[in-house]
Amino acid sequence: MTSQAVLQAVSVSEAAPENADSPKGRQRRAQGRRPGRKSFGLFLCILPFMVLIFLFSYFPLYGWIYALFDYKPALGLAGSEFVGLQWFELMFNSPTQVAQIGQVLANTLAMSFLGIATSVLPVAFAIFLNEIKTPWFRNTVQTLTTMPNFISWVLVYMIAFSLFSSSGLVNDVLIDSGLITAPMKMLDSGGEGVWITMTLWSLWKGLGWGAIIYLAAIAGIDPSLYESAKLDGANRFQTMWHITVPQLMPTYIVLLMLSIANLLNNGMEQYYVFQNAFNKEHIEVLDLYVYNIGLTGNSLSMATAVGMLKSLISVILLFTVNLIAKRTRGASII
């Protein structure tokens, strides 16, 4: 066979269609199916979480219908009177109700802004904790500051009551030492000082836990940046200020924006266990107010209406913050 005939045979074999049952054909078919199978497998992985989100976040929105009825538990929803927007009108037309909601909003916003103002403390704590060079001491400090996050607010109040009540340890020590003659009312005091007290308790409980995400961000910083700074003669505080802090800012900004979006979501556990007749006026945040008027005041429809408005305002805040993030950072957070 001449060389020209060999070349023609090779070209014919390359141009011929590949047999579907050949190993190469089966391999190509398998590769074509893999992306679809992989996507379906990933979908099955997130499906249980989607079901949980639907059951606990979206399905309960059906309960908003109670805001349109004068709901009586004994009669059920079918036997309760349909009142339309009566509860929403009452919130804005009743001077007493307007005054109560105004005070509750003041408490909620005050504690939220105090929480935002102290949100830099976990950043600073994470930076300084990362600078500790002794591993066992750093791990001990991190463990001791993270543990309070796993203590329930009921136990936190028991600790506070044992220490700061009128018959608590602090008052006993101060009286025995002659510094005071009568017990100080630390837990029973009212006024705006309650806002600062609640912020301090919340900070004590969440400082170590809030620093974890910043410690993870610090671990992801390129070590060559620190090496270059040391070669240029930078000391530890200069490397912290000019390298660590700027590298943490994107993470901090995202968390700050999420905190602003959750401005009305303070939770109620902390304030529920610390509330009493003396501080109720200044400790009652929006979530606790909804609980009090719904279960304590037996006005479930009114509580539902207030909760609806709170949820709608929170969604508006979230999309507003997301728009600001998109325009300032070039990337949205949702």
Protein architecture, described:
The protein has 334 residues and is mainly alpha-helical. The chain has two domains: 26-84, no CATH class; 91-329, Orthogonal Bundle (MetI-like fold). It has helices at 3-15, 23-58, 76-79, 86-93, 95-117, 120-130, 135-146, 153-164, 169-176, 193-219, 223-231, 236-261, 269-274, 280-283, 286-296, 300-329, and strands at residues 69-70, 81-82. The protein has a two-stranded antiparallel sheet with strand order 1-2. The protein is globular. It starts with a helix and ends in a 5-residue tail after the last helix. The model is unreliable at 5-18 (pLDDT under 50).
Q: Major sheet: size, sense and barrel closure?
A: 2 strands, antiparallel
Strand order of the largest sheet: 1-2
Number of helices: 16
**What fraction of residues sit in β-strands?**
under 5%
